[in-house]
AraC family transcriptional regulator
Amino acid sequence: MNPTLLEIIQTHGNGTESTCYCELTSSSVPTGKAELKEGFFFLLVTNGTAQLADEYQTYELQPAHLVTLTPSTKCMIQATSSHFQSMLLYLKPTFFDSLPDGQPLYEQLAHYLGHYQLPVFLLENEQATYLQKIFALFAPCRKNAVNYYDSILNHLCSFCLLQIADILTQTRHEVPDYARRSTDIFRLFKKTLMENYRQHHDIGFYAESLHISTTYLSRIVKHITGHTVRFHISELLCADARKLLECTNLDIKEIAEKLGFSDQSVFGKFFVKKTGLSPMKFRTQRERDKKNYPFPDAEGS
């Protein structure tokens, strides 16, 4: 059985449960084959060649080729040259969905969903070089960031996704009307969600704000992301809660109020369900981690 690309980069790369970065070479793919599925993959070829194939066609990859895959895409690296090298970034779907800046990229990929064509782009040399510099920032990030690693990683991922989206806007194509309508609604939903998730935890508010039914909103969000509206709300609330617990001195009751929960008990049950830890245990654990992993010295040792 061929390994998945995620299994390979988790072995050879560095990252977290949500993201992983790896500099992939021909020696990293033991049989010359690897499946790509169930995640957001961004592969930038820097040297050599490779064959990428789905059930419809085969793509010959060369330096400056960028491959951008969504969770609904399944394909396989079938062969690599002996000098093959690439930079590879993986984002877990739930993490991608929590990033407000992921939607512009998804809109650029909408043309390829269901059209029997993989999102494979040959970049201009200047674009490829610039993107290489951005990808390279992921390698030292894990080592050099401690107290604010989660926030730094979020911003770095958003920056990278926006830059890729900006590059893809220069590829001229028409997005089908049905895809444009759905992505427009989803974009407005994410914008409304980012502005209101602390105060409004119910789908009815967002459907009413967009002047559509809750059923229609649920269908669009589920189709585009594979997750429910409630899931998107809870992911933002949980990420915010983790940041407030880790980076502020607010007590649990104050955090519960700031995030729009009716009381501390309801917030506590929500947080345990999402993380497996109570808010207090999470805060204690993060404080212990900071003591065990202090900042590196001036020389990076």
